[in-house]
Amino acid sequence: MNNTEDLSIVRPELLQIAEAVARDKAIDQELVIEAMEEAIQTAAKKKYGQELQIKAEIDRKSGEIKLSRVMLVVETVELASEQVTLEQGKFIDESAKIGDLLHDPLPPIDFGRVSAQTAKQVIVQKVKEADKERQYQEFKDKAGQIISGIVKRVEYGSIHLDLGKAEAFMRKDDTIPREVFRPGDRTRAYITEVKKDINGPQIYLSRTSNDFMAALFTQEVPEIYDGIITIKSVARDPGSRAKIAVTSSDKTIDPVGACVGMRGSRVQAVVNELQGEKIDIISWSEDAASFIVNTLSPAEVTKVVLDEEIKKVEVIVPDDQLSLAIGRKGQNVRLASHVSKWEISILTEGDESDRRQKETKKETQELIDALVIDEVIAHLLVSEGFKKVETVAYVPIEELKSIGGFDEKLAEELKSRAITFLEEKEEELEKEIKQLGVEDSIKSLEILDLETLVILGKNNIKTKDDLADLSSDELLEIAGDKILDLEEANKIIMKAREDWFNDIN
Fold it and tell me: Which residue from 486, 485, 479 is spatially nearest to 448, judged by alpha carbons?
């Protein structure tokens, strides 16, 4: 390409130049030749006129350049620089017909210094664009893979890596804490994203990604690579501790043992790559309770109470296991929550006992106040599972009679008192709702109990539109424990907004 000025003279050398450039840039030779053709077209337009449609062709065997003016055969010429009549077209090609594109040969051009320079710039630009496209195509499919590179430079903690054919970027927060990089260091990282950019492909790397650890185990453990062992989830505190849950489709293969390797060789290789990050390898289980117990290892667990509806779990541990279960700065329970995808609360056996006693005392007192009974009877009811007035009011009489020491007369009396209490309470709530000015439009939704309506009324939420104007967060804050979660709050608000959508339709 050094002798661009002789482009029109040394025609056979064009193919040699194209071949050399293609080999040097690792791109298709055809792309280089097409860039040359475009450069020649640009130079030819400078000579013959920018308004003309000029086509340059380089013979792929001889290197000969052919220039021609391209014109469209039309019935009526509207653009003289690009169109000809049929009569004019027949002078170029006797077989011409309306709609044909004609190629009228032009004399070869002698590249002047300016034209040659322009051609050279076009070729260089096209080759660069082709090189960038090649890089993008090469790396776009490597997203989700581990790649090795050499540190090129470090800027404000962020790392620029030379991958050989491209450059990659790793943000500071994608590097493991206390990890030091210097120019010339070789390191491995996980390709998180490859973006197309005018300056070439933007390749983003990470060493803190959960997927990086998963990919490292895939490299070190053949059973994972072969699909026999599956990584279910990963949770990391980069550079400190991590948990990885694995399971095996082959019952004869221990997934944890396979990941640990002989004398810990496999897991140690991953630990070394992650700068000493401690890794807990956990056996995954379909049984949520068992799996959660595994995630809290090495702490011992005595009891697990699941709430599957809201994905929350209470874990009871011995008093001396509390600090181990929680971990330093809450690390163990936090990682266990992430890897299990459950919100985990840790209680000691002592805490649970105290809470249970308080709950029992509260429930007992509520029954004493509502049914006007003594503590012994109230305690018996609570211990047998009749913890709410509603339960006493609406269960079959036979269930109450089955409690030790209860006869039919006592059971019927308790049931009657419970029903009376609830009816009186309902009357009081209805009266209060009316006094607050809560409209029937909210009551008609039939999704809120009377106690919640009173709470809303006290907070000046008195119409269906008032309720519809609230956000889920606002409703949850106002109603407190009367509404379970944001999902339920959102359902209530959407119900209140139904008329809005009906009006639109």
Answer: 479
What residues does 247 pair with on adjacent strands? 230
Where the chain has pLDDT below 70, the residues are: 1-14, 25-27, 110-123, 484, 501-505
For 89, residues 6+ apart whose C-beta sits below 8 A from its C-beta are 71, 73, 96, 100, 102
The pTM assigned to this predicted structure is: 0.59
Q: Which two tokens stand for residue 200?
A: 């070439």
The yes-or-no answer to whether 4-135 and 141-208 have a common fold is no
Q: Which CATH architecture has domain 141-208?
A: Beta Barrel (2.40)
φ, ψ of residue 175 in degrees (nearest 5): -100, 150
CB atoms within 10 A of CB 260: 17
Is 4-135 in CATH node 3.30.1480.10?
yes
Say whether 250 sits in a helix, a strand or coil. Answer: coil
**Burial of 287 from C-beta contacts in 10 A (0-12 / 13-18 / 19+):** exposed
The predicted-structure confidence for 403-437, as pLDDT tens digits, reads as follows 877 888 888 888 899 899 888 888 888 888 888 88
Contacts made by residues 499-504, CB under 8 angstroms, sequence distance 24+: 499/464, 500/468
As assigned by CATH, the class of the 437-505 domain is mainly alpha
Q: What is the 3-state secondary structure (H, E, C) of 205-221?
A: EECCCHHHHHHHHHHHC
Domain ranges of the chain: 4-135, 141-208, 437-505
